[in-house]
Amino acid sequence: MDMLELRGIDKVYRSRGKPPVHAVRALDMAVEKGEIVALLGSSGCGKTSTLRMIAGFEDVSAGLIALGGRHIHALPPARRKVAMAFEGYSLYPPLTVRENIAFALKSTQLSRNEVTRRVDEIARLVEIEDILDSYPRAISGGQQQRVSLARALVRDADLYLLDEPMGQLEPQLRAVLRGRIKSLLAERGMTAIFVTHDQTEASALADRIAVMEGGVLQQFASEKELKGRPANLFVASFIGEPPMNLLDADVTRSDGGYRLSVGTDMRFDIDGAGLDGEAAKALASTPQVRIGIRPQKIAVGTGDVRVKVVSNQWLGDQSHVAGDCGGRMLIAVMPGRVAARPGDSVPFALEPRHLHIFGRDGSCIRHAEVS
Amino acid sequence: MEHSSLAGRIFRGVALSLILIFFMFPIVWIFLMSFQSNDQILRIPPRILFEPTLANYEALISGQLRTAAGNLQISFMRNLFNSVVLSSAAVLLALLLGVPAAYAFARFKFRLGETIAFTLLSFRFAPPLLVLLPLSLYYQELGLNDTYFGIVWVYQLIALPLILWIVRGYFEDISPDIEHAYRLAGHSWREAFTRIAVPLAGPGIAAAGLLSFIFCWNNFVFALILASADKQPVTVGALAFVTASGIQYGQIAAAIVLSVTPTLLLALYAQRYLVEGLSLGAVKG
Q1: A-chain residues within 8 Å CB-CB of B184?
Q2: Cross-chain CB nearest to B181 (options A90, A93, A94)
Q3: Which residues pair with A328 in a beta bridge?
Q4: SS3 of A97-128
Q5: pLDDT digits (tens, 9 = 90+) for A264-306
Q6: To 10 degrees, the CA torsion angle through B43, B47, B53, B58?
Q7: Which of B184, B187, B285 is the closest to A84 by Cβ?
Q8: Nearest-Cα residue of chain A relative to residue B285
Q9: Do B180 and A103 touch (CB under 8 A)?
């Protein structure tokens, strides 16, 4: 059953003397019970607005929000049964860390022992036991963030909203906490949505990732699907590190298929038999497409595309080789060290089956074959 | 401060002393005057050493002013009492009205919001004399002339804008998400206002209340025109010392000392709130 349903959500900010800002457009999304969902996007993409509409701090301009079958978009925040960790931590300055966390349980009818037990338990989880008696002013940003996280997670809510929950933490601690929080959420079957602009965090913590841009939900899928079958050019270029190589290509018919040529330097033959009807129709009707290939799918040292090496970086576990091919930049990732110096001419191998093909409007015509 | 040289420290000490003497001199002089008789005060050259007398205070407290032309009734203690009542009531009313209004202006964007806030502030721009004549005519018609309520009401022109604009700034400095967190935990916005916003803005509210108390206390023209003798505060009451037989400097000085004392004590007591209030930015988030 869907725990949370967003249907046709619009958010328009109107302020006097300025044109209205359409922050979220026609957002449809359904989150299952026990699922962890990441809202991923660059700043200003509408992800935080979405979160705040679910929490009830922003009105929806249009659409409906249902949580556990209840329509909540018109309810005050207090009655929505959601818990939230804020990006700015928002701890109560006059209360100690322990009181801050326990405060979230105040409206429940729990015994004092039970409250203490729960606070201690969650404090252990996010490693703040030793600062429980400090005041928010006296602890660091990273500690405040963990307190804020604890304050949200300690509650019994239908939905947990986490706004950039780990942005201030050191990388090591972040990795540890991710694991712990994920198992806590899974163990208790808690449904959670968190906002992040960090892909690594999104894929480490979330079951599904909602990629947003310009207020529009671009794709809502697992990380594997986002990488392997990006719905459009934006998702293709946004997901993946380093980003996908994108090139403009001219389409010509060849016997039994299509030929995509990038300038005079690269040529790819696509077998017509391997295309479904939609894709064939789309290729037949457009003279130009954009093609994309993941850096991990380019092999260095073989192949027929000659490039001039611009840089070759060894990152300790992989090499990033950037090459110039007729004024276009190609990045390749190789698992081992590559013997190439800037200025060298080396061959790159780009195989047609690894190509993603996008129409000029950005929509996907063909995904790469999953290898 | 540790790095400053000896010369620097001496210079700073001297400069601070000079400034202190410059600003404190009138108050100290008045304090000394309040223990002298009129003759001693008017002596030329004036002397620092003199035989102190409590006659001025005695006259004020007993309400009997002995002058060359005979005994005069003055109601200084009554004036002092009026000042306390009027200023306290005015500040209390202004806090009751102004704090929720300040919160509304800080948290919510609404039609004409800025216009209303600015209009309230503009009461402070207009010279009071401008509104006094129409105001006194209206007050006569409404029967508010010479009532405590009428004066408390007109004092809102002084206290309300001050409280509104100072407290608004403090509310704006508190992250709204602190209240949001509280509301998500199952509380209404009214509870968030009274339990989170007001306590957090407490030092600011205290500072604004204190400032407007001082401004109300020092007001002269409103009470002069709108109140008769038994409702007048000390500022107006002090006029009584300018008598047909001369100006009673000693009593004026004693009256000033007595009328300054309550606000001075209040300010000293509330000093820590003022300092805390001014450093509110540090508790953000």
Answers
A1: 55-56, 77-78, 80, 82-84
A2: A90
A3: A325
A4: HHHHHHHCCCCCCCCHHHHHHHHHHHHHHCCC
A5: 888 898 888 878 888 888 888 888 999 999 999 999 989 889 9
A6: 60
A7: B184
A8: A90
A9: no
Q: What is the DSSP letter of A363?
A: B
| Length of chain A (residues) | 371
Nearest to A76 among B188, B199, B283 (CB): B188
Task: Please answer whether residues A270 and A280 qualify as being in contact, where contact means their C-beta atoms are separated by less than 8 angstroms.
Answer: no
Chain B contact for A18 (CB, 8 A cutoff): no
The reply to whether residue A92 touches residue B184, judged by beta carbons under 8 angstroms, is no
When pLDDT is averaged across residues A114-134 and rounded to a whole number, the result is: 92
- Match 């402070």 to its residue by tokens: B124
Contact at CB, B285 and A82, closer than 8 angstroms: no
Residue B54: half-sphere exposure toward Cβ, Cα within 13 Å: 3
Rounded Cα distance between A4 and A35, Å, is: 10
Burial class (CB in 10 A: 0-12, 13-18, 19+), B8: exposed
The pLDDT tens digits of the residues spanning A216-242 come to 999 999 999 999 999 999 999 999 889
**B134: number of Cβ within 10 Å:** 9
ipTM (interface pTM):
0.78
Give the E-state strand segments of A266-344 in sequence order. Answer: 266-271, 288-293, 299-314, 319-325, 328-334
Local confidence band at A75 (pLDDT 50, 70, 90 cut-offs): very high
The reply to whether residue B181 touches residue A86, judged by beta carbons under 8 angstroms, is: yes
Q: Give the tokens for residue B264.
A: 């001075």
What is the distance in angstroms between the Cα of B267 and the nearest Cα belonging to chain A?
Answer: 24
- Tokens 């599904």 locate to A208
- Of A79, A52, A49, A80, the C-alpha closest to A67 is A80
Place of tokens 């403090």: B170
Q: Which residues pair with A210 in a beta bridge?
A: A39, A220
Chain A, chain B: beta-carbon pairs less than 8 Å apart: 65
Tens-digit pLDDT profile for residues B217-251:
988 888 888 888 788 888 888 777 777 777 888 88
Residue type, B247: I
Is there a contact between A263 and A326 (Cβ–Cβ < 8 Å)?
yes
| Residue A162 at interface with chain B, using a CB cutoff of 8 Å | no
Candidates B180, B199, B283; nearest CB to A90: B180
Find all residues with CB under 8 Å of B160, minimum gap 6, and list them.
B94, B97, B98, B120, B123
Give the position of tokens 């509409």: A53
Q: Which residues contact B61 (CB under 8 A, 6 or more apart)?
A: B76, B77
DSSP H/E element including B172: helix B148-173
> What's the start-to-end Cα distance of chain A, in Å?
33
Give the pLDDT score at A116: 93
pLDDT at B114 over 90: no
* Reported pTM: 0.78
Q: Do B187 and A78 touch (CB under 8 A)?
A: yes
pLDDT in tens, B171-180: 998 888 889 9
Q: Min CA distance, A349 vs chain B (Å)?
A: 53
DSSP state of A168: T
Mean pLDDT of chain A: 91
